[in-house]
């Protein structure tokens, strides 16, 4: 059966592994929801067409992230895009929210024509299909850097806590570590953190750097806009 699926082009192209992490787009806060399985598989030759869905939202008035009331519509759009791509033999690879605008990206087989998107109350998405056999958007815009991968590792810890019944909204001591090449910059950062309520120490590390430890009682509950677009066909 596996050989037949490969011959028919139906073998799963990658194992989906969704991750959520922050970043910046044009100097503004961005929230990424990306299938790392697709990032690591890119480019996938049998999906040479890129399918983009762009939309605007009113936002929370400060960060450029969606207001709580808008998240239901955005999640409904996620599902609608997933269904469209699956019906055309394609897959969603990620979503980015930033500066009161969002973009969901997926990929399609050659010559595939996706059906129209279902209507979503409160949003007016636009769609576009373009040739992108090299998956340039994935490789240049959606691939996480080293800092973002550290954030993903932290998110994994949070998910494991939740899986074991932890109430993430309950404050607890949260430790942060930062490394500096000299004591002056470490102490300058320590001063700012103390003003924000952290208990901070700076010590010389084993390798000659300076280690800043900051501890404060906080919840570890992620914001609602970090919900993943969910699983797609990837086949």
Structural notes for this entry:
The structure is a single chain. The chain is 29% helix and 30% strand. The model is unreliable at 1-8 and 231-235 (pLDDT under 50). A hairpin with a 2-residue loop joins strand 4 (91-98) and strand 5. The longest helix has 18 residues, at 146-163. It contains 6 helices and 9 strands. The chain is of the alpha+beta class.
Keywords:
6-stranded antiparallel β-sheet; about 30% helix; disordered N terminus; about 240 residues; about 30% strand; disordered C terminus; alpha+beta; 3-stranded antiparallel β-sheet
The low-pLDDT segments are 1-8, 231-235
Q: In angstroms, what is the radius of gyration?
A: 21 Å
Mean pLDDT: 89
Categorize the overall geometry.
elongated
CA(first)-CA(last) distance: 15 Å
What is the number of strand segments? 9
Element order: H for helix, E for strand? HEEHEHEEEHHEHEE
What is the count of DSSP helices, taking H or I runs of 4+ residues? Answer: 6
What is the topology?
Elements: H1 2-7, E1 18-25, E2 28-35, H2 36-41, E3 49-56, H3 71-87, E4 91-98, E5 101-108, E6 126-131, H4 136-142, H5 146-163, E7 172-180, H6 183-195, E8 199-204, E9 210-218
Antiparallel strand pairs: 1-2, 2-4, 3-5, 3-6, 4-5, 7-9, 8-9
Summarize the structure.
The protein is of the alpha+beta class and 235 residues long. The protein is 29% helix and 30% strand. The chain has six helices and nine strands; from the N terminus they run αββαβαβββααβαββ.
């Amino acid at each position: 059966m596996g050989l037949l699926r490969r011959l028919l082009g139906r073998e799963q192209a990658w194992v989906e592994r969704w991750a959520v992490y922050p970043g910046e787009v044009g100097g503004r806060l961005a929230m990424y929801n990306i299938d790392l399985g697709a990032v690591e598989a890119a480019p996938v030759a049998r999906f040479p067409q890129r399918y983009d869905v762009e939309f605007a939202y009113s936002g929370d008035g400060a960060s450029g992230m969606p207001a709580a009331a808008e998240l239901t519509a955005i999640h409904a759009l996620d599902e609608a895009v997933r269904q469209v791509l699956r019906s055309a033999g394609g897959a969603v690879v990620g979503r980015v929210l930033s500066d009161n605008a969002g973009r969901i990206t997926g990929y399609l087989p050659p010559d595939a024509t996706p059906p129209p998107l279902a209507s979503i109350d409160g949003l007016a998405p636009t769609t576009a299909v373009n040739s992108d056999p090299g998956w340039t958007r994935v490789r240049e815009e959606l691939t996480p850097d080293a800092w973002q991968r550290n954030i993903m590792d932290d998110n994994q810890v949070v998910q494991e806590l939740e899986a074991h019944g932890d109430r993430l909204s309950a404050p607890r001591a949260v430790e942060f570590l930062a490394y500096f090449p000299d004591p002056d910059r470490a102490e300058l950062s320590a001063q700012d953190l103390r003003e924000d309520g952290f208990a901070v120490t700076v010590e010389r590390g084993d390798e000659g750097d300076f280690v800043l430890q900051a501890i404060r009682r906080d919840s570890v509950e992620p914001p609602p806009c970090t919900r993943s677009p969910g699983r797609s066909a990837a086949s």
